[in-house]
Amino acid sequence: MRRPRHLAALAVPAAAALVLPVLMASPASAEPTNANCGTQTGDTGTASWTDHAELERELTGLEKRSDGVLQVDVIGQSNQGREIWSARVGEGDKVILVQSEIHGNEKTGTEALLNLLRTMSGRTPQAQEWREAVTLVAVPKMNPDAAELDRRGNDRSWEEVVEDFPQLAGSQPAWNYYDRARQGDDYAADPGFDVNRDFHPDLDYVPRPADFPGSSSEPGWYIHPESQAVRDLYVDLHGEFGSVDTFVDLHHQGPCYEVEGGDDRVTMSLSGKFVDIGNHAEYAEDYDLDYSKQLTLAAYDELQRGESPFGNLTLYPQDIDLPGTALGSFALNGSGTVLFEVRGQTQSWGAKMRGQLVSTVERGLVGMVDAVADGSVEQADPARYDDIPETVR
């Protein structure tokens, strides 16, 4: 495994068989008797998910077996010194950047990305076609400190932030700072931040005291090593390719949201809209909401195809303006952006339905990669996006 960041083009050998697991599930309206719609099950299923040490072994093994097709790099270190890895496969000029576990208790995306990396580094004709058309860059565990603690926030105090940015001495702590006991997580003893509010559309932004404590509707600050690592990767890819065509962020949501107009439980919410461009006019020339909608439709259509067990899909709420998220910031920089919000978190669902939910994320990603690779994503009518039913919370 290479330690320094290196983004050279990859050689492409011949490929081998693509197998996507599709696990049949009972209708979502028929909840299993052990379903939990509260905040704690007592069974977080922690042992069933890939932890930091296991991820290193998985990525190292994939890289070795790929015969140079897949490249693994360390793009940064977490606040507690854990490596943040990226894995890159493909040599096409269409760049797809995908990250998972920006919230450490949202783990299905990591498993889905590992499966996708295995598929794309394989020896099938399909995998080779994808590699020729796209460059996939995955960050499977963006926030490893939070992942090890199985919680939303990272492991970093406000005092540590001020040590790194002395100009913030005397400023109010950021609004997204967790420093008290919250939902079973001992933030009082071990504080942290929601890293998914630490992004800023100005990729050269330097933290200023006047911008604190900020709010959910304002940009973030790049005060954390985790967000800095992804920002730097994005900038590197932009410099190499001229743009990052697609950015996908893999999340979880509540376990028991319903589909608009019915009582079926939502399997996953999708979205391509994260900012109100009217509030960010300086970025309007680069912003491409239609392409984000087309990408979303590629995932949605794949999950709706045939007898898919993943049919209960909704739109994430659209009346939001979140420039401090990775999705919002990168959308304002011209990327097509898509949010996956699969149902449940480790605290509310444990390992129950794990296989179906991982397969849901994986299949949606495959639909998107395939549509980007063959160009069909650009033929989709963005107006169909608005026909996707909305989530009822």
From TrEMBL:
Any one Pfam family match given in the protein's UniProt record, by short name: Peptidase_M14
The protein's UniProt keywords, in alphabetical order, are: Hydrolase, Metalloprotease, Protease, Signal, Zinc
Q: State the needed cofactors, names only.
A: Zn(2+)
Q: Where is the Peptidase M14 domain?
A: 48-393
Keyword field contains Repeat: no
Q: What biological processes does GO assign it?
A: proteolysis
Gene Ontology MF terms? metallocarboxypeptidase activity; zinc ion binding
User: Where is coiled-coil annotated?
Assistant: none
Signal peptide location: 1-30
Entries under InterPro entries matching the protein: Peptidase_M14
- Tell me which domain of life the UniProt entry assigns to the organism this sequence originates from: Bacteria
Indicate whether Signal appears among the record's keywords.
Answer: yes
Q: Name one GO cellular component term.
A: extracellular space
Q: What family does the Swiss-Prot or TrEMBL record give for this protein?
A: Belongs to the peptidase M14 family.
Q: Could you tell me what this protein is called?
A: Peptidase M14 domain-containing protein
Q: Which species is listed as the source? A: Spinactinospora alkalitolerans
